[in-house]
Design brief:
This protein is mostly helical. Helices cover 37% and strands 5% of the residues. It has 7 helices and 4 strands; from the N terminus they run αββββαααααα. It has a two-stranded antiparallel sheet with strand order 1-4. The protein is globular and about 45 Å long.
């Protein structure tokens, strides 16, 4: 396993079906973790790798946390600033849904080549995440309704309305997922 979805500067942008496949497989991995009450807390394209068969693997479990009956929420600010959920930045209690926010930011990263606020220094980015709410897309008119709806349920500032990984796996956005073989050109140039 050696290729992340965005590691490289001279590749053509990913298509929505390719993004849908990578995000769906990442969501499956997150659901596996969440079913075991584990929060990853650092989901971003650098921590999602594809092998030569286009199998998607989540890596870098250094910020993981286990939720228990006695400690069903966390409040520590950990992760990579640009992908952090607002509740993490504000050091409020949070649960598995912080990974869903980060998955939404990773989706934007694959669409636009970078996460929102990357041109800002990390402290300013944290401030913007905490105050601006759901980030704006650079060119929403170029995107399908399915991906925009998917992002809207991932990037819901009110956690009560943010989707779970279980709910996301039934989202119509994943109906457009490509087949693993359709990622071979993406993986070819990275050899």
């Amino acid at each position: 396993i050696e290729n992340s979805p965005t590691n490289g500067s001279n590749h053509s942008p990913l298509s929505e079906p390719q993004i849908a496949y990578i995000v769906r497989e990442t969501c499956r991995g997150l659901k596996f973790l969440h079913d075991k009450h584990i929060i990853h807390r650092d989901i971003k394209s650098d921590n999602v790798l594809l092998d030569r068969s286009a199998r998607v693997k989540i890596t870098d479990f250094g910020f993981c946390a286990k939720l228990t009956d006695k400690r069903s929420k966390r409040a520590t600010m950990v992760g990579t600033p640009y992908w952090m959920a607002p509740e993490v930045v504000k050091q409020r209690e949070y649960d598995e849904k912080v990974d869903v926010w980060s998955l939404g930011i990773m989706t934007i990263e694959m669409l636009e080549g970078e996460p929102p606020y990357l041109n800002e220094d990390p402290l300013k980015a944290l401030y913007l995440i905490a105050t601006n709410g759901t980030p704006k897309l650079k060119h929403p008119e170029l995107l399908s309704l399915e991906i925009k709806r998917f992002l809207s349920v991932c990037l819901c500032v009110d956690v009560r309305y943010r989707a779970s990984t279980e709910e996301l796996l039934h989202h119509s956005f994943f109906d457009m997922s490509c087949e693993p073989k359709d990622l071979t050109t993406l993986l070819e140039w990275k050899k």
